[in-house]
Specification:
This is PAS domain-containing protein. InterPro entries: PAS-like_dom_sf. The chain has one domain: Beta-Lactamase (2-Layer Sandwich), CATH 3.30.450.20. The chain has four helices and four strands, in the order αββαααββ. It has helices spanning 11-20, 40-46, 57-60, 69-79, and strands spanning 26-29, 34-38, 83-94, 97-107. The radius of gyration is 15 Å and the shape is globular.
Length: 116
């Protein structure tokens, strides 16, 4: 088996992988948590459309600010700590009405080549 860990994988390949993943996925960038990518499963889960890409997660989904996500994401970003939410209760305003959901999710830091 060939080791490809140090080979460059094209941006298009990663976008395709992300969009075709069988689970909800999003990528948040920077300390203002800009949604740089979210696949269709994630957008459906959030009850949002692709117009939220490029916005802060807290502007796109303001109801999560008061549900502990500011602290969670800050810890992931600033301390590099992985967060595993298990059966986490979240209230989302989906399509004009609040709905109660329980989610299992992971927030994990992503680093560039300089480990930043």
């Amino acid at each position: 088996m060939k080791n490809i860990s140090h080979q460059n994988i094209s941006h298009d390949s990663l976008v395709t992988l992300f969009s075709q993943a069988p689970v909800a996925m999003s990528l948040l960038m920077g300390d203002d948590f800009i949604i740089s990518n979210a696949n269709e499963q994630m957008l459906e889960l959030w009850g949002r459309d692709a117009s939220v890409i490029g916005e802060s997660i807290f502007k796109a989904i303001p109801e999560i600010k008061s549900q502990g996500f500011v602290e969670i994401l800050n810890n992931v970003y600033r301390k590099g700590e992985v967060f595993n939410g298990n059966k986490w209760l979240v209230f989302l305003n989906k399509y004009g009405s609040y709905e109660e959901h329980f989610f299992n999710f992971i927030y994990s830091p992503v680093y560039n080549e300089e480990k930043k």
